[in-house]
């Protein structure tokens, strides 16, 4: 049952006066549940509890933390149909997607539990002493990692489960011994409360300290800002817009003790299509990309928003086919009225720029449904107008007609950092793709050959991140077990007695 209260440690509280409701975007109606925003005192208590829990939690063993993560997965599964119903009512996303995202969430939790069975994630290095070394003896040095401390997690609107309350950031931070305080997303606070309840029950059942997890309701940005400024918060995980991520990064940098902010943000995910690919498979790629651009109503950070090709009759035919295919797909509902209105505004801002031509036929859509669209522009105009490089969050893509390969490469070089880049080519193109691959990989976190960028596998070889502004730190991934590296720091022990070393560094 949804109460509308925050979880401050193990207790549910609602001492505040600010209340709000989530919206069912399909029905264009508010949902029944009334949520109360966390007060400044409640935020402070949640962080104080996290800090005191940290003293015990950081010293729990891997087996116990793995039990905790597995118990969270079990509790989430036990939420059954209620979770699916609330998820759908708050996001407009279909039941199949809710089930798929739940499976992904529990898979992530179990992957981190499995990771804890070995010490591989601890970045261990051992250099034993060389007392006879001249001119100076070498001391015994052993390196491992320590958890940073309580982490503030901000989930995104478009993944109410897998990138939210018990999503990758929370699971990875809990795995390595960091307590988590979640700033609940106001668009899916009911889903967040159900998941928070599952985490709290799992913590109680596995004997974890109170404060290891809290979930704060918030309608606006103040709760999150107070959280990031709190001196006992030691790192931030964020998934959302560039504007939001950047604001938190700046806030964290202004603190007396600046802290790392790992923000995964927006991207336009450039796709290069070669002349040969256009000639041999243009129609196939138009069909495939009409599907990828509209997948999840285009509300994915990996949505392909930019397609680059060299001006030719085949590129024109591809663009027109893409535009005609995309409007045959039934328009779908967006996550929230605000997301729909932002989509309309951003799409108009881009399509109203000089030199931009909309290729797709206009669509009549109901409230909160997206009118997918494809536009085109020439390479020189694209290069000279930064407005055309901005993310339009929704089912929209722009095809850029470049004069030649030199201009196409110049465009790639001048792109902001991206989560992904894709190359669509024929095998006979491969010997000539080195320059494009070299330039593209400088700008992206994941390079895809003959595929679509939408769909992010959860496995150790996945990198989900990229140069700024796709993320705030391109050295780390937000997906896969390597994402735990965001929440630990290195520590070296020099000449330490065996008894004082952590287990993983002891002899034998
Ligand atoms: P959002 O509007 O940035 O919101 C994310 C969270 O941050 C919300 O809880 C929001 O609170 C908070 N927030 C935003 N601005 C803030 C500020 N100035 N100070 C404090 N808190 C702030 O993003 P969204 O609409 O949820 O998600 C869509 C965006 O996320 C898209 O750009 C998409 O590309 C990106 N995304 C990226 C990834 C990735 O892995 N890289 C994955 C999914 C989505 P309020 O709602 O209360 O303002």
Jot down its keywords:
2 domains; binds NADP nicotinamide-adenine-dinucleotide phosphate; five-stranded parallel β-sheet; Aldehyde Dehydrogenase, Chain A, domain 1; 14 helices; 37% helix; single chain; alpha/beta; Aldehyde Dehydrogenase, Chain A, domain 2; globular; 508 residues
A few lines on this structure:
The protein is 37% helix and 18% strand. By secondary structure, the chain is α/β, with parallel strands linked by helices. NADP nicotinamide-adenine-dinucleotide phosphate (NAP) binds next to α7 and α8.
Give the overall silhouette. Answer: globular
* Strand coverage percent: 15-25%
Gap between N and C termini: 51 Å
Number of helices: 14
Biggest β-sheet, characterized? Answer: 7 strands, mixed
Structural class: alpha/beta
**What share of the residues lie within helices?**
25-40%
> CATH topology of the largest domain, anyone?
Aldehyde Dehydrogenase, Chain A, domain 1
Strand order of the largest sheet: 16-17-18-15-14-19-20
CATH architecture of the largest domain: 3-Layer(aba) Sandwich
Q: Could you state the CATH homologous superfamily of the largest domain?
A: Aldehyde Dehydrogenase, Chain A, domain 1
Low-confidence stretches: none
Q: Overall pLDDT, averaged?
A: 97
Description:
- With 508 residues, this protein is α/β, with parallel strands linked by helices.
- The chain has two domains: 31-129 and 137-265 and 471-505, Aldehyde Dehydrogenase, Chain A, domain 1; 270-449, 3-Layer(aba) Sandwich (Aldehyde Dehydrogenase, Chain A, domain 2).
- Helix content is 37%, strand content 18%.
- A seven-stranded mixed sheet has the order 16-17-18-15-14-19-20, sandwiched between helices. It has a five-stranded parallel sheet with strand order 11-10-9-12-13, with helices on both faces. A three-stranded antiparallel sheet has the order 7-8-21, with no helix packed on it.
- Helix 2 (62-78) runs antiparallel to helix 4 (95-115).
- The protein is globular, with a radius of gyration of 24 Å.
- The structure holds NADP nicotinamide-adenine-dinucleotide phosphate.
- Residues 154, 156-159, 163, 183, 185-186, 218, 220-221, 224-225, 239-241, 244, 247-248, 264-266, 301, 391, 393, 419, 464, 478 line the site of NADP nicotinamide-adenine-dinucleotide phosphate.
């Amino acid at each position: 049952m949804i109460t509308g209260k925050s979880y401050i440690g193990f207790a549910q509280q609602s001492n505040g006066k600010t209340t709000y409701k989530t919206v069912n975007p399909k029905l264009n109606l508010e949902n029944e549940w009334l949520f109360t925003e966390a007060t400044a005192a409640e935020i402070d208590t949640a962080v104080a509890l996290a800090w005191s829990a940290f003293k015990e939690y950081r010293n729990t063993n891997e087996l116990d933390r793995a039990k905790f993560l597995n118990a969270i997965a079990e509790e989430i599964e036990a939420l059954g149909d209620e979770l699916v119903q609330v998820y759908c009512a708050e996001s407009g996303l279909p039941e199949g997607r809710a089930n798929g995202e739940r499976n992904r969430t529990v898979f992530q939790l179990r992957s981190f539990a499995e990771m804890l069975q070995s010490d591989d994630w601890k970045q261990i290095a051992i250099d034993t002493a060389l007392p006879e070394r001249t001119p100076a003896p070498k001391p015994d040095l052993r390196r491992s990692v320590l958890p940073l401390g309580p982490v503030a997690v901000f989930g995104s609107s478009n993944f109410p489960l897998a990138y939210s309350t018990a999503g990758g950031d929370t699971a990875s931070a809990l795995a390595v011994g960091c307590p988590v305080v979640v700033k609940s997303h106001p668009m899916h606070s009911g889903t967040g409360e159900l998941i928070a309840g599952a985490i709290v029950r799992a913590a109680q059942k596995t004997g974890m300290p109170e404060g290891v997890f809290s979930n704060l309701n918030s309608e606006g940005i103040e709760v999150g800002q107070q959280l990031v400024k709190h001196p006992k918060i030691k790192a931030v995980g964020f998934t959302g817009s560039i504007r939001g991520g950047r604001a938190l990064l700046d806030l964290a940098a202004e603190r007396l003790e600046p802290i790392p902010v790992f923000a995964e943000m927006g991207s336009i995910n450039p796709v290069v299509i070669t002349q040969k690919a256009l000639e041999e498979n243009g129609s196939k790629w138009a069909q495939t990309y009409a599907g990828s651009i509209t997948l999840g109503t285009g509300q994915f950070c990996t949505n392909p928003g930019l397609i680059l090709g060299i001006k030719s009759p085949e590129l024109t035919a591809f663009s027109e086919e893409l535009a005609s295919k995309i409007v045959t797909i039934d328009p779908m509902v967006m996550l929230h009225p605000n997301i729909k209105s932002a989509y309309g505004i951003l799409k108009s801002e881009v399509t109203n720029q000089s030199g931009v031509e909309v290729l797709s036929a206009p669509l009549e859509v109901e409230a909160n449904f997206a009118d997918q669209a494809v536009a085109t522009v020439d390479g020189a105009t694209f290069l000279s107008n930064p407005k055309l490089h901005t993310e339009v969050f929704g089912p929209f893509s722009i095809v850029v007609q470049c004069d030649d390969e030199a201009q196409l490469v110049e465009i790639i070089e001048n792109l902001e950092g991206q989560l992904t880049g894709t190359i669509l080519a024929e095998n006979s193109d491969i010997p000539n793709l080195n320059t494009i691959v070299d330039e593209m990989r400088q700008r992206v976190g994941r390079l895809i050959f003959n595929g679509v960028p939408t769909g992010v596998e959860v496995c150790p070889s996945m990198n989900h991140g990229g140069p700024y502004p796709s993320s705030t730190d391109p050295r780390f991934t937000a997906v896969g077990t390597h994402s735990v590296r965001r929440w630990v720091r290195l520590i070296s022990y020099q000449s330490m007695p065996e008894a004082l070393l952590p287990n993983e560094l002891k002899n034998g």
